[in-house]
């Protein structure tokens, strides 16, 4: 665990929307901790610090609750849909060495074959992985991939110790020639065919005229 992930949490005994609003006005975030058969704990977290930490998917926080350490995984972040202010966070109790199921973002690297595009069909995959070794993302290299290339979940390179939960045949990336490129090529081909036909007709007319002169 990084020192950057250490967060001092305050236990709270007051609940309700009004109290939550007061907490947020003080720059704090209401949160609840649950899991491992324990009673839910309601805490307040330092807003700015935690907002930065949870930019990363599946953030792991090392909480200090009244002097007692507790490792938690960020499971759900509730935001105001308009202002995007964090309203509440759900935290799951985890133990070192324990495996958890998480959704990990997929990131494309490299450039496919010229004239093609790589489309991300599935933005994240579900993995079972150690709580303290959750990857930030799964990279998929599409360098030089040609039209028709399909990369499924089974093709992904997973971190050591991680197990794929997503169905292996799930399409992750598809490489193809854009439809507008195909349409443009067809238009060019049609135009070339029309020009060739016109030139052929003009040649035939010229040959006919020469025959008449003779």
UniProtKB/TrEMBL annotation:
Residues 9-91 form the Large ribosomal subunit protein bL25 L25 domain. Transmembrane segments: none annotated. One of its GO terms (biological process) is translation. InterPro entries: Rbsml_bL25/Gln-tRNA_synth_N, Ribosomal_bL25/Gln-tRNA_synth, Ribosomal_bL25_b-dom, Ribosomal_bL25_C, Ribosomal_bL25_long, Ribosomal_L25_dom, Ribosomal_uL5_bac-type. Gene3D superfamilies: Ribosomal protein L25, beta domain, Ribosomal Protein L25, Chain P. Keywords: Ribonucleoprotein, Ribosomal protein, RNA-binding, rRNA-binding. GO terms for molecular function: 5S rRNA binding; structural constituent of ribosome. Residues 191-214 are annotated as: Disordered. One of its GO terms (cellular component) is cytosolic large ribosomal subunit. PANTHER family: RIBOSOMAL PROTEIN L25/GLN-TRNA SYNTHETASE, ANTI-CODON-BINDING DOMAIN-CONTAINING PROTEIN (PTHR33284), RIBOSOMAL PROTEIN L25_GLN-TRNA SYNTHETASE, ANTI-CODON-BINDING DOMAIN-CONTAINING PROTEIN (PTHR33284:SF1). Part of the 50S ribosomal subunit; part of the 5S rRNA/L5/L18/L25 subcomplex. Contacts the 5S rRNA. Binds to the 5S rRNA independently of L5 and L18. This is one of the proteins that binds to the 5S RNA in the ribosome where it forms part of the central protuberance. HAMAP family: Ribosomal_bL25_CTC. Belongs to the bacterial ribosomal protein bL25 family. CTC subfamily. This is Large ribosomal subunit protein bL25. It comes from Microbacterium testaceum.
């Amino acid at each position: 665990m990084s020192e950057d992930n250490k967060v001092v949490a305050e236990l709270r005994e007051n609940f309700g929307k009004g109290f939550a609003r007061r907490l947020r006005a003080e720059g704090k975030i209401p949160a609840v901790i649950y899991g491992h058969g324990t009673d839910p704990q309601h805490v307040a977290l330092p807003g700015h610090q935690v907002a930065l930490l949870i930019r990363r998917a599946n953030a792991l926080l090392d909480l200090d609750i009244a002097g007692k350490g507790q490792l938690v995984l960020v499971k759900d972040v509730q935001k105001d849909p308009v202002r995007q202010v964090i309203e509440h966070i759900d935290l799951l109790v985890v133990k070192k060495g324990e495996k958890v199921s998480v959704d990990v973002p997929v990131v494309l690297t490299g450039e496919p074959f010229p004239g093609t595009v790589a489309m991300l069909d599935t933005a994240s995959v579900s993995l079972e992985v150690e709580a303290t070794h959750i990857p930030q993302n799964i990279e998929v290299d599409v360098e030089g991939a040609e039209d028709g290339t399909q990369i499924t979940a089974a093709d992904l390179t997973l971190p050591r110790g991680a197990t794929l939960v997503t169905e292996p045949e799930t399409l992750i990336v598809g490489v193809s020639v854009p439809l507008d490129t195909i349409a443009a090529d067809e238009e060019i081909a049609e135009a070339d065919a029309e020009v060739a036909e016109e030139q052929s007709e003009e040649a035939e007319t010229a040959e006919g005229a020469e025959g008449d002169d003779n």
